[in-house]
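[audit] Reproducing an earlier prediction to check determinism. Same input, same settings, fresh worker. If the tokens differ from the archived copy the diff job will pick it up downstream; this log only records the rerun itself.
[audit] input (266 residues):
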Amino acid sequence: MMTSVNYRYSVRGSWLGPAGEKPAVTRAKFLQTLDALSSIDPLFAGWQFTGSWQIPEEHRSEFVPLAAGRKRIVEIVESGVYIDDFNKHCPEYGHSVHAVAGARGARHVAFTASTKRQSFDLSFGEYDISSDLSIVTYPLFKAALLAINAVWHTQWACAQAFRTDYVSVPMDFGAGIPAFRIDSLPKVPLDPTFPESIFHVPWIGYLSAERAASLTLGRDILIEHTPDGGVLLSATTERLDPTNPEHVRRARILAETMIACTGGPS
């Protein structure tokens, strides 16, 4: 039996700063990010906010278009406040803001920023749906990573691939009750020992000047210096293909480098 090998691509990163960042700062950064991404490619057009805030009558939908969201950005950000186990609002722990663009499915784009986790995620495709490979290009992912980084001033950022395949394993609960366990599959079939990390299968990595201080690499990884003193590391300038042995070899070098320079955040 042949097993499919499908991947969802994303760009994610993390910054340093107070978890309780002022909502006004978050609002400005989030809108600036959406505008910066919109200028890169039509794929990022038509942003809509999603969340649990009170939706005005003229937009009775689970989505609020960017134009309307600009006017309600205070409400949107504050509605994303962290809530503890006792359903208590804890603004000192930060906020989470989410927006989507594109059609549902493989061309879906979502951007989330969390000041509690001090991280962002720009994903292509959906949770169990692989990215449309026609939109996964090196110029677009590099431009998106640099655009987001310019706003949030990250310590690290990474364009990566994450395998979406899984297998259902039958389980016996007795009494004729059918049950299944969902198991994920090796993220890199060509390299079962590929390092486990938040970077998954890295394609393009960014390290701040501080994180890159002790960086040493051979010629297998393309290195570019960024205006802020950081470095951009690329495993390949083609679309990263985790079924390509050479891409896997270079992605492993990049993964090990990112882990070593960041301490392997989870």
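[audit] rerun output stored. Observation attached for the diff report: The CA atoms of residues 193 and 262 lie 20 Å apart.
[audit] end
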